[in-house]
Amino acid sequence: MVELATIERRLTHRVMVGDVAIGGGAPVVVQSMTNTDTANVNSTTDQIIELARAGSEIVRVTVNNEASARAVPLIRERLDLLGWKTPLVGDFHYNGHRLLAEVSELGPALAKLRINPGNVGFGDKRDRQFEAMIEAALLCGRPVRIGVNWGSLDQEMASRLMDLNAQSPSPRPAEFVLREALVRSALENAAQAECIGLPADRIVISAKVSRVQDMIAVYRALAQRSNYALHLGLTEAGMGIKGVAATTAALGFLLQDGIGDTIRASLTPVPNESRTNEVLLCQQILQSLGIRAFLPQVTACPGCGRTTSTFFQELADKIQTFLRDKMPNWKEQYPGVEKLNVAVMGCIVNGPGESRHADIGISLPGTGENPTAPVFIDGEKAMTLRGSRIAEEFEAIIEDYIARRFGTGTIEDRHASLLNAD
Fold it and tell me: Can you tell me which residues the record assigns to a coiled coil (predicted)?
């Protein structure tokens, strides 16, 4: 069994979002956000379920007008009727204070409110409207994420810090000042929320930027200067490989340092691509770091001149799809199965070794990939598969292994039974 790594987590306040705990030593939580028109109850409900089924533990929805505000309670009711208790977060900009006041059932239907201080209001209206939103959260007993954003930073604060920096005998670069403005905005608004009456264990803060090094610097500063629960996200991460690489670099660095209590991957979807990919990326980052386990992992080699057919690639893809498809039932039947490690290797160079290191593995012969492949179980060669049905037979072996290892009986008995099965 592959054990999870031990990463010392930063101590933060624990915030309850519905039944999901954020911070305070709780597992790092995966979040996502819908991109449907929230006013469309059917399409938004369907996408929330799709995201939740993929593993999103919290889902955020846009609440930008009266129609969307009135739709949220209907969405919550429909989700509950269908058996989905996934907490919903309302994403407010500009008019949240008004919508929460005018639609009395909106606040109770949400598990958390997300406020961007830079978009709450301007001038003398800003403090009143921010206070109105915090009071709405207090009235319905909900936590708040205070989320500052590089693209909508409080301009008064940014200008003030820029002026002070210009007057300094040793002025800092503009990027440093803007990072400091983000940190101060988040912390000062959180302190203001506490003064209004919102306790620290109902506050999550975030500071979204679109560049990796800026994000790392900002969150390091937030972690050093507060104990609030932190939501991590690289905003506007981009599309395809760029978005995946940038998000992984930023989140992975901070998580490895024990910083971050909940995460989201803000990927731009490729046309016709599932929204669930942002959930799967977050899960894979956490699992690759050894922080959490969601799905049995498939170790597979990249292929080289020794693998002159696509058979091992197709086999790895089939096994990975098989594991994902089976997980909804397996996680109910076999606790711990998500920590399973499976190897599908393409040639004899590293194949046998990697297969032995996995819980269960198969090693193909290489060039031409003749259909003869040894299977290793818990470090020992257990059997050899031949012929045209290697994929189906290996799937059956995996399923039997899981039933024996994670089902009833002692671990020793199940392992001995597997090794004697050939």
Answer: none
